[in-house]
Amino acid sequence: MIRLMIIDDHPMFRSGLKKMLHDEPDFCVVDEAGDWADGLARLRSHGDLDILLLDINLPARSGFDLLETIQVEAPELKVIMLSMYSQQQYALRALRAGAHGYVAKDMEAADLIGAVRMVAKGQKYMTPAVTEMLISSLHGPDDNPGEQKKLSIRESQIFDMLVRGESLTMIAAKLSISVKTVSTYRSRILEKRGVSTNAELIQYAVRNKLID
């Protein structure tokens, strides 16, 4: 039996995901949480989990922050990162941070189930595109230095939201931070990308294939 936990801040998505996993006879969803703090507390109460399905975009602190804590407290726990974004550079960052897999939320159910089974066997789940990027990164010490690598984890989250046309207010609400804080992050992102407007940032993302 593969014992799983889900941490995602969207109740409807959690509910659908839990139902899908429960339909598999060898899966058991033992717990769920909707934010970083509750998720960590619940994780600490379960010593026999096999896999954690962890959303990257959590309120207050990101899934990457929680992944970092897990690497210290429960390094044997296998983590599959969930995200609404399918861009491969984000997936590569998750794998490099210690995740065992990266799954876009619009992935087919059969593919997600296959990813869980693969990770449960001790393998890492990577799409062909991510595998290609990972192989390419071995050719030099710093692959694509102008891309996401110069951004912090939080900056990467906000970068993704900005290039998809989300307003500062929307981003602030989703991340549970102030609009002023989002504006500060936006200024840093624009500076690091060498652009001055959101439109130029979107052009940058399209040009570098960082947005679908």
TrEMBL record:
Residues recorded with modification 4-aspartylphosphate: 55
SUPFAM superfamilies in alphabetical order: C-terminal effector domain of the bipartite response regulators, CheY-like
Domain HTH luxR-type: 144-209
Record has DNA repair as a keyword: no
Residues spanning the signal sequence: none
Domain Response regulatory: 3-120
A Pfam entry, by short name: Response_reg
Entries under Gene3D superfamilies matching the protein: 3.40.50.2300
Key words, A-Z: DNA-binding, Phosphoprotein
Name listed for the protein in its UniProt record: Response regulator transcription factor
Organism: Noviherbaspirillum album
